[in-house]
Design a protein that fits this description.
- A divalent metal cation 2 binds at residues 111, 174, 207, 239.
- The structure is a single chain.
- This protein has 255 residues and is an alpha+beta fold.
- The protein starts with 6 loop residues before the first helix and ends with a strand.
- The protein is 28% helix and 24% strand.
- Helix 1 packs antiparallel against helix 2 (37-51) and helix 3 packs antiparallel against helix 4.
- It has one domain (7-251): Creatine Amidinohydrolase, CATH 3.90.230.10.
- The longest helix is centred in the N-terminal third of the chain and has 24 residues, at 7-30.
- The strands form 4 sheets. A 5-stranded antiparallel beta sheet has the order 6-5-7-12-13. Strands 1-3-4 form a 3-stranded antiparallel beta sheet.
Length: 255
């Protein structure tokens, strides 16, 4: 079932989105050579605690997962596409890091992701990050009243393919509101003019995940969570929570 949000609910979701933005900023500031992924999770936890917010990630266990997720952020490094579990790994010079974070505040949820490099970046990584950000921007621009989910999907796919990147099959964005994952599903590939209609009050988490190797295949680590490229190529992930409104797309997870 798809829930259309009221304008008042969008305003509360915007506050949850601000918490997510602050948490992501704190993680990025903390990320440096020698810092562990667990320490990045601690930085995000501190922001959530200060805001009186909960985490939709912590304890989350979908049907595919062997264990509940043990952290408030996903930390995916280099060839990890998404869902990486924070652990004792210490960041190295040149690592490409993707951070996904959510927050629950006053019964509503925000969800966003960023990618960045640590230390001296590889030129190819910067191109990948730019392409993934461009794909997100294109998806958001297509999130217009009167359109359809396929318009968003097609916009993302067009940018990804032009950049020569692959995207993990079966994974994409989703509706969001009272829960982190709601209907409808938002594929990162699709045909324009198809799919669920976009109307004022629909809120979507739009999240392209691009893989530099150009393939759409992925594998899952033994932890049951982390998705990795099958060819060892690098991956990047960007996401925003976006409300469809009569005034245009409203990004709820900006600072």
């Amino acid at each position: 079932m798809v829930e259309i949000k009221t304008d008042a609910a969008l305003d509360v979701m915007r506050e949850a989105g601000r918490v997510v933005a602050r948490a992501l900023a704190a993680v990025r500031e903390a990320a440096d050579v020698g810092v562990s992924l667990g320490e990045l999770d601690e930085a995000a936890r501190a922001v959530l605690a200060d805001a009186g917010a909960g985490s939709p990630f912590l304890g989350y266990r979908p049907s595919f997962a062997p264990v509940a997720f043990p952290a408030v952020i996903c930390t995916s490094v280099n060839d990890a596409v998404s869902h990486g579990i924070p652990n004792g790994y210490r960041l190295r010079d040149g690592d490409l890091v993707s951070i996904d974070c959510g927050a629950e505040l006053d019964g509503w949820t925000g969800d966003a992701a960023i990618s960045f490099t640590v230390g001296t970046p590889r030129p190819g990584d910067l191109d990948l990050i730019d392409a993934t950000q461009e794909a997100l921007d294109a998806g958001i621009a297509a999130a217009q009243v009167g359109g359809r989910i396929g318009d968003i999907s097609h916009a993302i796919d067009t940018v990804a393919r032009k950049a020569g990147c692959g995207m993990p099959a079966d994974f994409g964005g989703h509706g969001i509101g009272r829960r982190m994952h709601e209907d409808p599903h938002v594929p990162n590939r699709g045909r324009p003019g198809r799919g669920f209609p976009l109307r004022h009050g629909l809120v979507l988490a739009i999240e392209p995940m691009l893989m530099a190797g150009g393939h759409d295949t992925y594998r899952t680590d033994t932890d049951g969570w982390t998705l990795r490229t099958t060819d060892g190529s690098r991956a990047a992930h960007f996401e925003h929570t976006v409300a469809i409104t009569d005034q245009g797309p409203r990004v709820l997870t900006l600072p």
